[in-house]
Amino acid sequence: MDIRRIVPLAVFAVGVLAVAVEPALAQSTADSATEELIWDLNNQLLYIAVPLTILVEVILFYTVWRFRNNESPLPTRENRRLEISWTVATAVILLFVGVASYQVLASPYVTATSADAGEDVTAEDEAVLEVQVVAQKYSWTFNYPEQNVTTDPTNNTMVIPADRTIRFNVTSKDWLHAMHVPGLGLKQDAFPGQSNYKVTEVHETGEYQLYCAEYCGKGHSGMLGTVDVRTQDEFQDWVAQKQQTDENETS
Ligand SMILES: [Cu+2]
Known about the structure:
The protein folds into two domains: about 5-70 and about 80-105; about 130-250, Immunoglobulin-like (Sandwich). By secondary structure, the protein is α+β, with helices and mostly antiparallel strands. The chain contains four helices and ten strands, in the order αααββββββββββα. The protein is elongated and about 95 Å long. A five-stranded mixed β-sheet has the order 3-2-1-5-8. The N and C termini lie far apart (about 90 Å). Copper (II) ion binds near residues 215 and 223.
């Protein structure tokens, strides 16, 4: 079998394999808008990377096997067609990776830079919910400026509503920390005296683990928290209850 026959055969095999792995990739359901974007990009890149890897390996193994008894191999001195092919193919692949990545990086759900981030992706009749995430050695406090609610730092639980655009304003009271919620695809550094933003919308209610992802001292490994995602009504109830107890405490 010569190389002209093996290449289309390899491409075909790779196509079959790509279709076969598709259901496994599609199972990765995303719980937030941010995680969805990240997973979609990951899958898109895998569709290119897996077939390419297999194509290269097939050609390599075939070549080794085909020329195993060749005692005096001669290098290909010049092959313009081959050179143009691999240059163009590489350029097309890099362009695809670049465009696909840029689209995700430019999304406010992935890169939020300003204090009004998220306003452009939220529904017209709905305000973005801002949650100020304050990290400190070794706990988390969550402030809801519009609702005038602050959580207890010993509780380490952030309550947010599902299906609403949330903007996290991440900061620190002492030194470097980082908010990391892998289940929702969220990660943002916490610097003292600075606000870093992160925007998302969560689709699924439930509890998600929050970690500190910046080594911050002896209590770092225990600097955990919970993101408690509730329905909009349950969230409103929680806010009302919190406002009530805060009022009773101050009076
Ligand atoms: Cu830490």
